[in-house]
Write a structure and sequence with these properties.
The chain has a 4-stranded antiparallel beta sheet. The two termini are 21 Å apart. 27% of the residues lie in helices and 39% in strands. By secondary structure, it is an alpha+beta fold. The protein has 3 helices and 4 strands. The protein is elongated.
Length: 121
């Protein structure tokens, strides 16, 4: 018998936040785009209950909460999001968090910078 894996994701979550290494970034803020993927094994594909999956409303709340806390590094924000998801949804086997900082202040035309963290149980 095979394993059924289920993926639940939020893509393109746009949030204005105050992250950045430089003090002015933490004052002025900028737009960020967050993607989160979760994957879990499903043992009962026919149950129509929220408790048998990852609640993407809760995923959004986690992203929103962690993005409100100003930090110097996006890596720190991504790890915080990942840790919250890992502790909230114990059945999740894999987590991927991607954060894009739109128009980073680099002195040139750059669409975004990106960081990504991944976790596997």
């Amino acid at each position: 018998m095979g394993t059924i894996r289920q993926k639940v994701s939020l893509e393109g979550v746009r949030i204005f936040a105050y992250h950045g290494f430089y003090a002015e970034e933490r004052v002025l803020g900028t737009e960020f785009i967050v993607d989160v993927d979760t994957e879990l094994e499903v043992f009962s594909a026919g149950d129509d209950e929220l408790s048998n999956t990852v609640n993407y409303e809760k995923l959004y709340q986690i992203i929103s909460f962690e993005m409100k806390i100003p930090r110097k590094l996006l890596e720190t924000v991504a790890h915080a999001i990942l840790d919250q998801i890992r502790h909230e949804f114990l059945a999740v086997k894999n987590i991927r968090v991607v954060i894009r900082k739109m128009h980073p202040p680099l002195g040139g035309d750059v669409r975004n910078s990106t960081i990504e963290v991944n976790y596997s149980r």
